[in-house]
Amino acid sequence: MEQLGLFAAPRRLFTCTPSKLGSYEDCPRRYRYSYVDRPAPQKGPPWAHNSLGASVHTALKNWYALPPERRTRDALPTLLKATWVREGYRDDTQEREAYRRALNWLESYVEDLDPADEPVGVERTVAARTETLALSGRVDRIDQRGDELVIVDYKTGRSAVTPDDARGSRALALYAIATARVFRRECHRVELHHLPSGTVAAHEHTAESLARHLRRAEETAADILAAESAVTSGDAAPDDAFPALAGPRCSWCDYRKVCPAGASMAIKDPWAAI
User: Fold this and answer.
1) SS3 62
2) What's the whole-number mean pLDDT along residues 151-172?
3) Which of 137, 146, 79, 81 has its CA nearest to residue 110?
4) Can you say whether the dihedral through the CA atoms of 145, 151, 155, 159 is positive or negative?
5) Measured between alpha carbons, how far is 224 from 241 in angstroms, rounded to an integer?
6) Which contiguous run of DSSP H or E holds residue 127?
7) How far apart are CA 40 and CA 36, in angstroms?
8) What pLDDT does residue 31 have?
9) pLDDT band for position 1 (50/70/90)?
10) Which of 5, 84, 185, 191 has a CA that sits 20 to 30 A from residue 156's CA?
11) Judging by DSSP bridges, how do beta strands 148-155 and 133-145 pair with one another?
12) Do 22 and 248 meet the contact criterion of CB atoms below 8 Å apart?
């Protein structure tokens, strides 16, 4: 008798990053515009706060790429100028002020760093697989603290961060899981380093709390696959399968102008968040 299914194809894993999952959780419609529709709708203008954040992140990455003896405050102006992203600012005056502010953040931040400390990873991509997910993501910094690894995520937004932000961050939890698997070391502590205020918000995960975050990520992936399947099979229209979650967040959405649900929301200037 023929054994059916003996050579059945393995189940396809859902390839994702934490930001991809978060996009769907924030608004399924935005997820569709970003990851499903091809060609993707045209985005709005670039945001100054994204330019500012990217500039600071890259400057710190390049600071750690220097030999330890050159990791000083004096290196930062050159590093920041070399990585500076100019898009989204109202005018040159605002851009110059943002640059000065960013440089002050960086100079204050590195004062508390030991130049001789070598992180385990800087802007390091980590990955993990589960029965349903092929997960990957890029971590700002991975530190070694004793026998364990620590996830460090830089923040440059106006709002201060809290331990609840660190505890509730799906991305940080997934980074911790993937980091532990890549390096085969324990990784439970996650930290948000808010450069504008010089504060650190941290959370110490347990195996159970990490498992909860992973389970919710898998549930989100299942919802995405179900929505995509409904559209492909013709059981649902794209707008129904990927509904818009209209709200204040729409004012900051790259697709506000092409989304009927967000078109009525107030328009934010590209520099409004700096």
Assistant:
1) helix
2) 97
3) 79
4) negative
5) 9
6) strand 121-129
7) 8
8) 97
9) very low
10) 185
11) antiparallel
12) no
Report the 10 Å Cβ neighbour count for 226.
11
Q: How far is CA 261 from the centre of its chain?
A: 25
Residue 214: what residue type?
L
Question: What confidence category does residue 199 fall into, taking pLDDT thresholds of 50, 70 and 90?
Answer: very high
Q: What element of type H or E holds 204?
A: strand 199-204
The first and second tokens of residue 93, run together, are 């005056």
Whether omega before 39 lies within 30 degrees of 0, making that bond cis, reads yes
Token pair, residue 42, equals: 């045209």
| Selection from 105, 50, 46 nearest residue 79 by Cα | 105
Q: Return all residues near 119 (Cβ < 8 A) that are at least 6 apart.
A: 64, 141, 142, 143, 144, 152
pLDDT digits (tens, 9 = 90+) for 89-146: 999 999 999 999 999 999 999 999 999 999 999 999 999 999 999 999 999 999 999 9
